[in-house]
Amino acid sequence: MPLRSDWSTELCPVRRSLDVLGDPWVLLIIRDVLHGTGRFEELRDNLRISDAVLSRRLRAMVEADLLTTADYTNGGRIRQRYVATEAGADLLPLLQQLAIWAEKHTPTPEGGGHMTLFHETCGQETTRAETCSACGEQLRPEDMTWVKPWRGARHHLRGAGA
């Protein structure tokens, strides 16, 4: 899924990571999957992305071992949803740091509000991405809730395979 060329064999780890993560759709899809939105239709509707683009991104993300599929039953039929792998769940600090950075350095559009990264284990908001600013514990997806006031939503995150 390279943007410009194949950087997968580069010595620079930033270039190698951008070879996999350089497409903005990848981080948005991972965000939604960690929020528990893993069915194709849910991802398509939530992200407002075309079927073709989403299909290509999901296929590439499975090949890159960011996502895997898991079966679920819907109306007696077995369907598949996407879940994060360990590599996908390990992107949580990056996603949270992007949110923290945007809260600090970009204007909040009208009708928005402060997004809270809530650490369920200690019950406090955290202002850091990898360890809780309140208790110091490492932050894992399954211990986090993102509160989005503009949506009136609380998204309890899911870890790898969940």
Automatic annotation (TrEMBL):
CDD domains: HTH_ARSR (cd00090). Coiled coil: none annotated. It holds the Pfam family HxlR. Residues 12-110 form the HTH hxlR-type domain. One of its GO terms (molecular function) is DNA binding. Keywords: DNA-binding, Transcription, Transcription regulation. PROSITE patterns: HTH_HXLR (PS51118). InterPro entries: ArsR-like_HTH (IPR011991), HTH_HxlR (IPR002577), WH-like_DNA-bd_sf (IPR036388), WH_DNA-bd_sf (IPR036390). PANTHER family: TRANSCRIPTIONAL REGULATOR, MARR FAMILY, TRANSCRIPTIONAL REGULATORY PROTEIN. This is HxlR family transcriptional regulator.
